[in-house]
Specification:
single chain; 255 residues; alpha/beta; Nucleotidyltransferase, domain 5; 3 domains; 5-stranded mixed sheet; two-stranded antiparallel sheet
């Protein structure tokens, strides 16, 4: 019932996992609904045995315990069967980039080449979270109306913007449960900007794969070892505006 026609399948994805960090996450439940251009749908759902213990904080969110996954299929058992749902399609979900990243890593661990299918250009994303942000903008003015119940006077004046931000942050922290937003700067940072522990730079453009080898985490060479694409890596490194941290990545050629 979307208000526009589909030109190719739209695969809706939802995963429950063991971690918020895609590289660390293991799938414990997967749901897929594929909407076809002709109006028909295909559905698939299963609890998945992640092969690792499910952390208590993850269970607190999705209520799936270690006991629930006993005897359930591992991801590698269903990986090949699910692959057609990721070919020549677009994707829908809520914060769907996270789900797609988790799937790529799970396929990598399963030894099934799926990055090309999941990244199949020009795949388009229909993300509920991003739509919400578009429908209800989250500018500083909106921030102050929500948490301080006042208008933002002198918007885009640097001092007024800082004062407004500080006031809004303090108001939010005083009104929201610490279970949602802890009163700890490090924990707030980790929740706001989770970083892949295998990332080799702040933007996670390069990571170490399951074998510990530095690989690209972007573009046409995503998943490929840096050493096998030296010319592209050197070209990327020499582009204007590279930070000192990014320039230090030259060491990857010698790891």
């Amino acid at each position: 019932m979307l208000p526009f026609p589909l030109t190719r399948p739209l695969t809706w994805i939802d995963l429950e996992t063991t971690s918020k960090i895609p590289r660390e996450a293991r799938i414990v439940e997967i749901g897929l609904v594929q909407c076809m251009p002709d109006g028909t749908t295909k559905e698939w759902w299963s609890v998945i045995n992640p092969g690792v213990s499910i952390p208590p904080d993850a269970t607190a969110k999705h209520n799936i315990t270690d006991a629930d996954v006993v005897g359930k299929p591992r991801f590698e058992d269903v990986a090949a069967k699910l692959l057609p749902a990721f070919r020549h399609c677009d994707y829908g979900g809520y914060n769907v980039r996270y789900d797609l990243d988790v799937l790529k890593y799970e396929y990598e661990r399963a030894g099934v080449s799926a990055i090309r299918e999941i990244d199949d250009p020009p795949a388009r994303l229909l993300d509920g979270l991003r739509l919400w942000q578009l429908a209800e903008p989250r500018t500083l003015t909106d921030f102050l109306k929500r948490w301080c119940q006042r208008d933002h006077v002198d918007a885009h004046d640097a001092k007024a913007d800082i004062d407004g931000t500080v006031e809004g942050v303090i108001a939010l922290l005083s009104q929201v449960s610490q279970e949602l937003v802890p009163h700890d700067l490090q924990k707030i940072h980790d929740l706001s900007f989770p970083r892949d522990p295998n990332a080799l730079d702040a933007k996670s453009m390069f990571i170490r794969n399951s074998a510990g080898v530095p690989v690209f985490n972007f573009g046409k060479h995503r998943g490929k070892p840096v050493k096998t694409e030296k010319a592209y890596f050197k070209w990327w490194l020499e582009q204007p505006g590279r930070s000192s941290e990014e320039k230090d990545l030259a060491r990857l050629l010698h790891d």
